[in-house]
């Protein structure tokens, strides 16, 4: 194939026949296509023709998406919140899914509030506070266990002497106390109860 007139931005595919590269037109492929004038328009907001191509621009407050459309630059997707967001008076605010979480310094991720150390958590008698991510729970104090008695759950003293979880000496007597136990050396022995001689 020979093209006597040449193909400026394309290739010769037959006698004096040019196949133009994208963005160019004309018998010798020497004319730039104004993509901004095409229907449908390639850009949603503003279009600028360039040599062999075009560029899309968005109005203020919008961000260019890969498909040439413009999305509000204040949408949740743009802000990149950890748990989603809400729009208040045109401003995007990230949200946290629980009252036990608060927005971190970056305004996007949620950090835990330790209800146990801030005093927000109130656990009933014989229970201690255990912090979790976004919340807390109340657990029986050490030396107590949760038992279902007379229609509801209660923290009941563990009798370490009966459960054999005490560490009293072989020559000592175990005495149960509320939430704990004591060891007393048998008669004829002296010591702490953990050590008897």
UniProtKB/TrEMBL annotation:
Keywords tagged on the record: Calcium, Cell adhesion, Developmental protein, Differentiation, Disulfide bond, EGF-like domain, Extracellular matrix, Repeat, Secreted, Signal
Originating species: Dicaeum eximium
Gene name tied to this protein: Egfl6_0
Primary location: secreted
Subcellular location: Secreted, Extracellular space, Extracellular matrix
Biological processes, Gene Ontology terms: cell adhesion; cell differentiation
Similarity comment text for this entry: Belongs to the nephronectin family.
Pfam families reported in the protein's UniProt record: EGF_CA
Stored Gene3D superfamilies: Laminin (2.10.25.10)
UniProt keyword Repeat, yes or no: yes
Keyword Repeat included in the entry's annotation: yes
Record-annotated EGF-like domain positions: 32-71, 112-150, 157-195
GO molecular function term, any single one: calcium ion binding
Organism superkingdom: Eukaryota
Record protein name field: EGFL6 protein
């Amino acid at each position: 194939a020979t093209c006597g007139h040449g193909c400026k931005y394309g290739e010769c595919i037959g006698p004096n026949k040019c196949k133009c590269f994208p963005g160019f037109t004309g018998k010798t492929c020497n004319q730039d296509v104004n993509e901004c004038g095409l229907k449908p328009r390639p850009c949603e907001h503003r279009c600028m023709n360039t040599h062999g191509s075009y560029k899309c621009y968005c109005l203020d407050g919008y961000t260019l998406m890969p498909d040439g459309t413009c999305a509000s630059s204040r949408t949740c997707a743009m802000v990149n919140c950890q748990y989603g967001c809400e729009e208040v008076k045109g401003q995007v605010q990230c949200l946290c899914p629980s009252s036990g979480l608060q927005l971190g310094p970056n305004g996007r991720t949620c950090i835990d509030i330790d209800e146990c150390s801030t005093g927000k958590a109130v656990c009933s008698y014989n229970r201690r506070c255990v912090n979790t991510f976004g919340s807390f729970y109340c657990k029986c104090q050490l030396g107590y266990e949760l038992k279902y008695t007379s229609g509801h759950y209660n923290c009941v003293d563990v009798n370490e002497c009966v459960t054999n979880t005490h560490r009293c000496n072989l020559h000592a007597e175990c005495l149960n106390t509320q939430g704990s136990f004591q060891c007393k050396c048998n008669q004829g022995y002296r010591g702490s109860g953990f050590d008897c001689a």
